[in-house]
Amino acid sequence: MLLKRTLFTTKHTAPSRHGGGGRNGVRGESGVSDDDLALEVLSHYSSTSESASVIEEGTGEVVDEQTAQEETEDKLKQCIDNLMDKSAKTRLAALESLHLGFSSRVLYEFLLERRFTISDCLERSLKKGGGEEQATAATVCALLCVQLGGGVEGEEGFKMLRPILSSILIDSCASLPARQSCARALGMCCYVSASDDAEDLLKSIGHLESVFVGSYPLGDGTLPSVKAGIPALHSAALQSWALLCTLCPASRINTILNHHMPRLHTCLESSEVNFRIAVGETIALLCELGRDIDQEFEYEDCDALCDSLKNLATDGNKHRAKNDRRKQRSIFREVLHYIENEDFTEEKIQFGIEAIYIDGWIRRRIYDAFKEVLESGVRHHLQFNPLLRDIFGLGPPLILDASVKASRISRTERHLFNSAAFKARTKLRNKVRDKRADVM
């Protein structure tokens, strides 16, 4: 078995079955208050795209969940039909609607019987569409893989779409937004769906690598000049490549470290802030992979690397935008602390009454990759998508739907509840402000 899956740190704020903390930071809690649970139920209820039974304002008619689900699926069926339209504008609008639908809801059952039709349409858009259509189609490819999961269905879709995604990625004549979108889609699809024989993994890594090495130093040690838009493409390819590196065995990681670390070190001198940041995060991730293999691992030119990181962590050049300087300093302080002390600032991602903890660069890259694809829908998928819950070590979805359906809370009741909660929070904050004023 060549592939390995890194599980995320998880935490349930509902009564937990886990014991004490371990290396992955899984910690149990005594439970959650009734008020917190009620707030979560209402929040979950209002976040399901009004699919649960509610009383429609102004009509008094009850729209049950099944009806709402059927209406949503009818709209998606029309979008799928529109993917075959002759009008590029119609196809693009359909792709954008699918993008929104796939990112905001879990649709496995609906997509299972339509996956071949959708894959055919996406392949056609990637081959014959313009740059904007190709870019959107590539994103929908990634979302389709996330919806279908890592089973046979996802693998079939990936094997069908990988060649065209790779072809656009390495085509220097293709539009830059399309190539950038294909870079992210190739990384995500491969991470989710790559088969155990590792052929797809190695091919995808090779294609991504062939793109971002365009920013590597030339024979004389200087960095090449690149035209506008290329650094963003190289950043996307590098980040997807780093994501796939987390699946590689120890032997491959050692080769990667020896070949890429010195060149990535040089790329820290790039004039593009976002590419520098992507490089810095990738260096930290590779160091973490190296330390996972060998606790004594240390980059051979570590002192020079730390000097470069210190310069970037304290960069005050006025010719750079203030926000760019602030973002760069923050990221490179974290990278420097990790390289020097293996110190990582833990991040908590809350969704519903659960949470995951990001406590390493590998975990951050994997979470960021899903967030880039799912955007604002990432928390919904963390709650309900079996694929993400497996990757993040969350177990089966918590069952809150039964209590939500039984309550049949109307929009008016939900509004009154939220108003009361807002007033309670306001009173509490006023008390805190009064105490601060007394201290002052």
What name does CATH use for the topology of the domain at 69-196?
A: Serine Threonine Protein Phosphatase 5, Tetratricopeptide repeat
Overall structural class, as computed from helix and strand content, comes to: mainly alpha
Mean pLDDT: 81
Give the spatial strand order of the biggest sheet. Answer: 1-5-4
CATH class of the domain at 69-196: Mainly Alpha
Give Rg in angstroms: 24 Å
How would you spell out the order of helices and strands? EHEEHHHHHHHHHHHHHEEHHHHH
Major sheet: 3 strands, antiparallel
Helix content: 55-70%
Number of strands: 5
List unreliable stretches of 5+ residues. 1-62, 401-406, 432-440
Estimate the global geometry from the Cα principal axes: globular
Give the amount of beta strand, in percent: under 5%
